[in-house]
Amino acid sequence: MSCFRLRIRNARQLVQVCSKQERFKSGAAQDDIALIEGGAVVVSQDGRIAAVGTNEQVEAWLQKQPQPVSFEKDVDATDKVVLPGLVDGHTHPVWSGSRVDEFAMKLAGATYMEVHAMGGGIGRTVRCTKASSEEELSQFLKKRLDRMLKCGTTLVEAKSGYGLETETELKMLKVLHKASKEHQIDLVATYLGGHSVPEGMTAAEATLDIVQKQIPAIIQAKKDDLVNPEFIDVFCEKGVFEYDDTKTILEAGAKAGMKINFHGDELHPMDSGKLCMCVQAHAASHLEMLDTANIKAMKEASTFAVLLPTTMYILKLCSPPARELIKNGVPVALGSDYNPNAHCLSMPLTMHMACCLMGMTMKEALVGATINAAGSANRAETHGSIEVGKFGDLLVLDAPQWEHLIYEMADPPIEHVIKNGRIVVSNNQLLV
Ligand SMILES: N=CN[C@@H](CCC(=O)O)C(=O)O
Ligand SMILES: [Zn+2]
């Protein structure tokens, strides 16, 4: 007897997103998704997808198995929709303290940098995070990841960056590494020692500290399996780390084996596309101020654009050039940018905002929150679509068509969230 972990059948729509093992979708392909009507999917005991297709195709595949088959869980998805687990391409989920009062300041007209200059913003979160124990930060992180899972996220890119010195950056990366082993959500960790210039230092001094102290300490901790940052990030911004310092830090990170995914062109034009080419960036985020020449440079560099609609919304920034990026063939991914400035854990809401604020279609947004976000986090081989061999990360939607995931904004009708073929959330209740 072959016992599979899960079968779902009779789905009114089974949205694969990709069916040809694409590692990303760009240009016109970003507005095109693979969808099966009357679909079924089977997940093996190793948590990977064993078969997907129409009910008839999957049934024929099961008939061909050498032994009789059974299923640990058999879900009838009649009148329902099946989608891949969502991927959040950009988050800052490890921090303590509160910045709720800064929301009122921003509503009254203060800009992001003005709040920062008044002692708030990143610097304030850094002070609190330094004072918190690893245990306390782990507890906060767990609660946030649980809430993300309830919103349908099964893979998250997660940054450090509220330490800005060796000890606290390592503490944050340890918290992420532990969560990557313990939590249902899969995590890709990013080292963001260059998130802000620490109080009392110049950008040049902070750059030296990162290159000479922080990165070597991270390499050692990685060898000891205490941390595992796969990416390096810098907030490349006027008055923070500007072009040359950013380049120095990113190159040092790349030399240490980390891929590059940096914050660029958020508040001022910083030539991020040119920088992507220069350092061979895997991804760059924000990009509100990106111009045409830099869009073309990103295309040339084969860099993912990770767009963050919650941030432009809360800071009342102009929209990043989503349409022009797509037109120029840059794969656009989406991230919630979860952080104390933009307190959003939900990819359905993020997709909704990408449609309403950035002019993306619903298909483009779904691709941005699945295969392209997985690609931006270097996980396209395992996440971001419903294809044989990938992790059995699935959503069951109690809706007649998949667009309800985006249309219903803050409360999409997600009935089940499935991780590696196991139901981990049912009707908004965590089961693990
Ligand atoms: N812009 C820089 N970093 C974060 C905000 C971090 C914070 O304000 O705490 C972002 O991606 O939006
Ligand atoms: Zn960010």
From TrEMBL:
Keywords associated with the record: Histidine metabolism, Hydrolase, Iron, Metal-binding, Metalloprotease, Protease, Zinc
Entry protein name: Probable imidazolonepropionase
Catalysed transformations (reactions): 4-imidazolone-5-propanoate + H2O = N-formimidoyl-L-glutamate
EC number(s) recorded for this UniProt protein: 3.5.2.7
Domain Amidohydrolase-related: 81-424
Organism: Thraustotheca clavata
Record-stated family: Belongs to the metallo-dependent hydrolases superfamily. HutI family.
Record-linked CDD domains: Imidazolone-5PH
One BP annotation, GO: L-histidine catabolic process to glutamate and formate
Listed InterPro entries: Amidohydro-rel (IPR006680), HutI (IPR005920), Metal-dep_hydrolase_composite (IPR011059), Metal_Hydrolase (IPR032466)
GO molecular function, one term: metallopeptidase activity
SUPFAM superfamilies with a match to the protein in the record: Composite domain of metallo-dependent hydrolases, Metallo-dependent hydrolases
Pfam families per record: Amidohydro_1
Pathway(s): Amino-acid degradation; L-histidine degradation into L-glutamate; N-formimidoyl-L-glutamate from L-histidine: step 3/3
GO annotation, cellular component aspect: cytoplasm
